Here is the input.
Amino acid sequence: MSLLKIEVGNVRPFLGEKCLSRFGAEISLCHAMLLSKNGKGNDFLGWMDLPEEIEAGLVARIRSDAEKIRTMAEVFVVIGIGGSYLGSRAVIEALSDPFRPLTGAGNNPHIIFAGENLSEDYHAHLMDLLDQKDYAVAVISKSGTTTEPAIAFRLIRNHLEAKYGREGARERIYAITDVARGALKTLASTEGYTTYVIPDDVGGRYSVLTPVGLLPIAVAGFDIVALLEGAREMRRDALASADCEQNACAMYAAVRNILYRNGKLVEILVTYEPSLQYFIEWWKQLFGESEGKEYKGIFPAGVIFTSDLHSMGQYIQEGMRCLFETVISFEKPSRQLTIPVDPENLDGLNFVAGKRLNEVNAQAGLGTMLAHVDGGVPNIRISIPELNEYTLGGLIYFFEFSCALSGYALGVNPFDQPGVEAYKKNMFALLGKPGYEKETAEIRKRL
Ligand code: PA5
Here is the structure.
């Protein structure tokens, strides 16, 4: 069975005649640009070869450090923002028992994220928790200068040193950053923290298959070798052909760009599995930050059905017709639950008695798809056989490669994020950061 299937039958009526074959030629050029590495942002294409080129020694080191962390920590705090945490969170939450924090089943440390927000309440509650738990920390920042994780790390380092002493703290801190630049690198070298390097040619949102994602995923108890294998298999397919009918990445990139040119400005990634909530967040960051520039790009949104059918479902069915949906699903759940027969049938539900819950979920999906397509919302379907490390690795590579192709088709550089700087400049000016005196004076006049 192939790792991933894409179905676009419910998009074709919205594409226009011969559109896909015409656009296929454009996507072929983008594919060639990626492979020959002569497109925009070509100094950030390291992610393309990661699954193939990651050194066995590095994977072994990550696994061995993960084992060490697993024996010393009940909680592993991952500090990072954007691409420095979303990939690991996506995989960990996709594969975890959602109720383990309450049942306490299994021996894996709890992975907790910090530094992806500046909430005082969130971080104060975290400190309370860390008072009671043995913990270790990964601080992740490619630039080594991002404010949110830097502040969280200062708070947590302070706590860690008070709890374990400076030497004890040092053994519990793992820094993942640039090889040479940035304040985090300076701090890690001065303090002698265990350090992993984020390759120069891999940007944050394409970094889940580097130590950025692999260390937290391994600490959580998941198989990073299988994750890389899945990505490797998808890479083979992605590179082998530029033909939309042969290459799912090319098909996805082509279809979404045609829809965009036909006025479908918002893509909603849909799942029927709450465990994929952070996968959606990772996808939103990947596509939003890669494509939303030069005042163009599809706006990436996400919903979890069936819950959101009782909120956003109304808009999707009858609101502005600028939407299309991409549904990700897996065929086989890892657990089984059958709806029982009730002889009294007071709730009138015996028509589903004896059915697996997954079957009901699947029928809800089918019914929704038909309703949305009838309502003018094109529907792309992406499915994997089941949810595990191997298929998630494939899915990650699928979206990364598709995003790069799609960004090139849009005519932007999918590997930079110049727009992220604007809020930082204002925040630094408002906080009176040294070097921002002129901006501080200017911004104060506006308040
Ligand atoms: O994709 C990106 O490059 C960004 O989302 C970054 O990951 C994010 O801004 C965090 O940057 P850094 O890792 O430098 O702290």
Notes: The chain has two domains: 5-41+226-414, 47-225.
